[in-house]
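Dataset card, provenance and construction

Sequences and ligand SMILES were collected as paired inputs. For each pair, a complete structure of the chain with the small molecule in place was predicted and serialized as structure tokens. The example below shows a pair involving adenosine-5'-triphosphate. Curators did not alter the output after generation; any descriptive sentences attached to a record were derived from the structure itself.
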Amino acid sequence: MDATNQFVSDPAVVIDNVSMTYKVATNESNPSGDPAWSKLIKRLTPGQRMATVHALKPMSMVASHGETIGVIGRNGSGKSTLMRLIGGNERPTTGSVLATNTPVALGVSAALMPDLPGEENIHLGCLAMGLTPTQVVAKYDQIVELSGLGSAIHLPMKSYSSGMSSRLRFAIATAIDPEILILDEALNTGDAEFSQRTKARMTELRKQAGCVFLVSHAMESIRDLCNRVIWLDKGDFLHDGEPEAVIKLYERFIEQLRRGDLAGADKTKRAARREMQAVEIQESERGRRSIR
Ligand SMILES: Nc1ncnc2c1ncn2[C@@H]1O[C@H](COP(=O)(O)OP(=O)(O)OP(=O)(O)O)[C@@H](O)[C@H]1O
């Protein structure tokens, strides 16, 4: 059994040939060279064209229960796009995302109200995630403790620093012991003490066989919290494996770019892609998929 196959036990999320393409208006002349868009272009404001952004090129992977998967890559590589697709916030252009449960993103902030104190926002956030009022009461102390906000929990959320509100959002999002949790750049604003608590909570989730996706530019957080890492670059799924191995390749690539060694950076990318053991998801019978 190869390194990739060991990830395939007990799948939580299956990403089956998923890609995401956006069409955006641009002032650049003939950005995509796609004649099919010429009719549409005529209807746009003069001077504007449609550009095609390949935010995520076709990719397949399987995330299992008990995995904390770090998602790394340069700006604009498709990390957040992939998280939105996994979270069900957007539909992919091709392929499908299958999950064993509804993924919880730290974006419960949508349900939170800046004018209300943290304590009332705990109720709002938990209700928005489907907890009953009795369950919220049972979880309340644990959430306040994890947030580490102390008496600030009685202050309106609009008075919180970005670190404080991200701590509260993390505490709320993990309160329901989510089976699938998406943390997109959510933990970077916490201080050292919160990092310890976050780590402990994420270890608990992993032990309960949760599956966590963690997008971060902070390699220390990725090293600390993840047991698997995927690397995206300009929409390409470049590598997938043990954190140290993937981070080493990524850091070499970034260093080569910094030095202006484009040939070296390209070589690193090609090596990463070549070494990756891709999974193949097959439809064994209508509606049933198997993983190779
Ligand atoms: N709604 C959208 N409409 C058009 N283009 C988009 C949209 N969302 C993302 N993109 C484009 O898709 C590409 C990937 O963006 P994405 O936000 O997924 O990257 P990222 O890896 O999360 O970047 P960062 O590290 O900067 O957060 C970028 O080129 C971005 O401009």
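Derived descriptions for this record:
Residues 22, 24, 53, 55, 73, 75-81 surround adenosine-5'-triphosphate (CB under 6 Å).
The radius of gyration is 21 Å.
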